[in-house]
Amino acid sequence: MSSPPSNCRRLATCTVAAVLLQILGLSLFVIGFFPVKPTLSGLSGAESYRQPTSPGSVEDGRILAPDQRRSLYREMSEIPPQFDRLVIMVVDGLPAEFVLGKGNKPPTKAFAESMPYTQFLLSNGRAVGYHAKAAPPTVTMPRLKAMVSGAIGGYLDVAFNFNTQALLEDNLVDQFYNIGWTMVMLGDETWIKLFPGLFTRYDGVSSFYVKDTVEVDHNVTRHLDDELLSNDWNLLVMRNPKKSSENPYAHNSLQILNTNILMVPKLKEMDDIIKLIHKSAILHQDKTGSRTLLLVVSDHGMTDNGNHGGSSYEETDSLALFIGLKAGCPNYTAATQNSALQVDIAPTIALLFGVPIPKNSIGILLSEVKGSLTGGCHVLYGNGRPFWTGE
Q1: Residue spans of alpha helices (H) in 259-327
Q2: How far apart are the C-alpha atoms of 322 and 105, rounded to whole Å?
Q3: Which of 210, 247, 251, 336 could bridge across to 100 with cysteines, CB 3.0–4.6 Å?
Q4: CA distance 233 to 223
Q5: pTM of structure
Q6: How many angstroms separate the CA atoms of 83 and 234, rounded?
Q7: Per residue in 39-58, is it b (16+ CB within 10 Å) or e — as a string?
Q8: Ranges of residues in the chain whose predicted pLDDT is under 50
Q9: Other residues' Cβ atoms within 10 Å of the Cβ of residue 29
């Protein structure tokens, strides 16, 4: 029969073993569910235009000024940049189906009539829309990272969504800064936190005004007229956080607005901004000869009850609308039923503006861009992803 001290030692040993086993199990769960994604450090440079077997780097031993780097990229890529200025308009939580429809059906009559100018551009081949699938988690910060870096984040990014840190991965904003671009940011301060010190001018607001549908958008648009008249910027980022006063607990809920009178006016407001920017871009091109691309995107979609974060179709159906490409085939179906991945935006923009594709990008070139480069048309096959047919 064991003595009392022996029983105590055995109990203590079992307790310690049980605690260690729990810690091990928790560690395995955290490592498996929140993996640390390996990334390549540094920024892509001139070496990205060389064959992988080519020895050395073009920039070895040289520190290039931004204008020299820009000229070098243009020389090595052998594809002249198609645009001189870029306007990125981010509409928080806008489902692509509100603008492009769903399946083979156009958007509802109310939504289509609330965006007459945008629908005119689509029907005349002057804009191309994509249902750009967003990878989960469908929350703001990791979706913005995907659009500018072409890389997919992990669920650990959900924690950083509430405490945004500077983006250290290779991305388009850093690439533009490296070729001497002047950049302006209006709207949600998430962009300012992701890219500290890169914007020459900015006016940021908190992304958590969950009850407001007016003041946050006004903060974005109040400077717009002045910025569109200015010639000193190359990149203008506008972040329009859309909120629902009907459901203060649904963060950035555009889907909730679908059932009340606020939805149509907000889409009309967005259409007016698109019209203003596009008309200004045309005037700017007439005066200076430079071309402006307007990219309207949403970070994610929404479920019917205003939630997001998961992997349902409604949550992952985000918008990517390119306005300013060379006029293609005036085919409304071909301009609205394209499908893409959100990570495809980064390499596509990189090609259009003559900068290296970010190192960690897994996206592909959107085929409509090839049509824009050559003046060709695109058609749809099978799964809805577009393929180009040249002239």
Answers
A1: 263-288, 313-316
A2: 20
A3: 336
A4: 14
A5: 0.81
A6: 10
A7: eeeebbbbebbeeeeeeeeb
A8: 60-61, 161, 210-212, 242-260, 376, 378-391
A9: 10
